[in-house]
Amino acid sequence: MKQMIIEGNHKLSGTITIGGAKNSAVALIPASILSEGICTIKDVPNISDRDALIEILTLLNCEVKINDNELIIDSRNLKNTQIKESLSNRLRASYYFMGALLGREKYVEIYIPGGCNIGSRPIDMHIEGFKALGAKIKTDGNKYILSADKLIGTDIFLRFQSVGATINLMLASIHAEGTTIIHNAACEAEIINIAEFLNNMGANITGAGTSTITIKGTTKHHDASITVIPDRIEAGTYIILGALCGDNLCIKNICPKHLKSLTTKLKEMGANLIINKDNIIISSTNNLKPINIKTLVYPGFPTDIGQPMSVLLTQANGTSLFEETIWENRMGHVPSLNKMGAKIKVNGMSALIEGPTKLKGTTVIATDLRGGAALVIAGLIAEGTTIITDVEHILRGYENIITKLTQVGAKIELKEI
Ligand code: EPU
User: Which CATH number applies to 2-18+242-416?
Assistant: First the structure.
């Protein structure tokens, strides 16, 4: 068990360099097996989700070389085997092995995925999509067994623009016979990154980044490489931190287009930010206006930045409304923020946030990844010492968070207990 100990109330200045996007990398790693060759993935963040996926690849007899942030994955000698529950439930993205193995091997045995407790997280759209492609699905307790003689391209309509279902169905269908069209597909930047990788290995995917994605089945796939796009959620988290305690804090290696919904809201609040081609420079101000935010699918305000943003809203001059629309349990961090002195009233999936409120250090619990990141921000602006427990959630998604924050002047350390 690890804890973070934060001494708050210090100005942060200097540069934080953003790493590769977790939610892209965790799909690119399983996708590599579809090449049946050797793949190079650059800018993979060094987070515990990466390590869990490498363990699954190793279980499948793939060879993985790690050179800093580069992974070289050789899946030529893949041996299909059951992915045990203790591995699949370590993270959400283990489910991408469903699409990837079904596509390559036409057979998968895998247990239900894990992931943050932010909602019920069904995978019915993934399963319905696999069935539409011709797969047979059996369940045995928590285990899924997916099999197919062959996969045949078809039209798939998603009832919601699910990121996971869109990616999983792209993975399964590149080897299918004929054409698959995913309607009402998710449009996140990560989807484009995955499609580009699959195309680099010989797939024929068009329309990624729009709500209609067309995949023409191809039989020959080969070695490929890809660079993971910058993590817009990691960037968003540090930009929000800069708006609270930055002194010309530079957030580098970002794609401003991917952060437009956040920067638009920050400007509406009166935050002090300069947006450059691949970085944002941000300083704190006492004149933040209250605003309303509602999380939506891309390009709307990202659900994963909602919790960090709620901390910023505790410092605005007036009452803000934070509405979550994707996950039922996005307010797990609120009791901790209120314990620190925030005035937040939760009503179902919405919260009214009264500001400005002085935050004071105390012991709080990270209930999930982004909720945990929100507590790190709160601790860094609070008076006194904040102890965050259950920080394993945070370490799943933020690469080198202690080093990155320490380098810009934060007083934060990780303690094994
Ligand atoms: N949904 C269903 N059935 C399905 C799939 C999804 O009902 O078969 C529902 C979910 O319950 C949810 C909504 O659809 O209400 C959106 O789910 P989506 O499938 O888009 O989410 P996901 O793929 O499970 C990814 C990210 C999440 C991020 C969401 C939304 C990964 C590994 N996870 O999850 O990231 O919140 O998209 O953008 O890519 C995080 O990074 O902290 C995180 C939770």
Answer: 3.65.10.10
User: For residue 60, what are the contacts with CB-CB under 8 A and spacing of at least 6?
Assistant: 33, 75, 78, 79, 80, 81, 83, 101
Distance CA 102, CA 116 (A): 25
Ligand 1 — pocket residues by CB below 6 A? Answer: 22-23, 26, 92-93, 116, 118-119, 121-126, 160, 162-165, 186, 303-304, 326-327, 369-370, 397
| 417 within 8 A of 1, measured Cβ to Cβ | yes
115-143 residue pLDDT tens: 888 888 899 999 999 999 999 999 999 99
**Domain limits of the chain?**
2-18+242-416, 22-227
Q: Which of 39, 116, 187, 250 is catalytic?
A: 116
Same fold for the domain at 2-18+242-416 and the one at 22-227? yes
Strand order in the sheet with 2-7: 363-365, 385-389, 2-7, 411-416
22-227: CATH class? alpha beta
Query: Which pTM does this prediction carry?
Result: 0.97
Please write the tens of the pLDDT for every residue from 20-44: 999 999 999 999 999 999 999 999 9
Q: Tell me if 31 sits within 8 A of 194, measured CB to CB.
A: yes
Tell me how far the alpha carbon of residue 329 lies from the centroid of ligand 1, in angstroms: 12
